[in-house]
Design a protein that fits this description.
- It contains ten helices and five strands, in the order H-H-H-H-E-H-E-H-E-H-H-H-H-E-E.
- By secondary structure, the chain is α/β, with parallel strands linked by helices.
- Helix 9 packs across helix 10.
- The chain is globular and about 50 Å long.
Length: 252
Amino acid sequence: MKTKPKSKHLLLVPLIAGMAVGVLASAQAEDKKTSAPPAATGAALSVQTKESQSAMTPQAALTKLKEGNARFVAGELLKRNLPAKVRATASGQYPFAVILSCLDSRQPIEIVLDQGPGDVFSARIAGNVLNDDILGSMEFACKVSGAKLIAVIGHSNCGAIKGAVDGVELGNLTGLLKKIQPALAQVPAEVQPRNSKNLEFVDKVAEAHVRLEMQQIRERSPILREMIDQGQVGLVGGMYDLSTGETRFFDN
């Protein structure tokens, strides 16, 4: 009995199936290649370590903040592998600075200074107000955790400063704004009008407020004053410009 020859169509089935499997495997491999995160090297993965923190000086810490802000203004932020940095800092942290800044959403301090996870301690509160809790946090950051710089950074066109200037009273905000009001007397009387509509006056009050807080850090915390006097920790003030993204650090 003769068997019928196999149809050409049937002979093509295994060939087509094999080609399909090959194409699918190739596509899957390509998908994995493109979706996988890039290998973390250099600045993308580098994090603060105990050794790098110990070697850091207060002046070097300030330089890192200045350089970070310059990158932000230029739109040249460091490319970081954030998931890798999260894993790398999970077991410990060695920040080189502690920064007191305002709650304002337009001043996200780690971003405008181009710092990543584990680089800086960040204390944010409306009007960058200094209180006992913030002071205690600074003492922890410097005395316990080894930070080398304390930075107090206000900003232009600050709503909390405007509220303090106009004597706003609103629930718990009232007490916070009163902590800012001593700075009004530090602005020369010839700066008029002395209300929130005069942005020049508002910004001068904001800078005076930062400078008063720098004094208060020394006066209210013997721990920090001793570390500053011994050169173990630096203390600097600054103002962030909402319109340009630039942070101007004070010379003294």
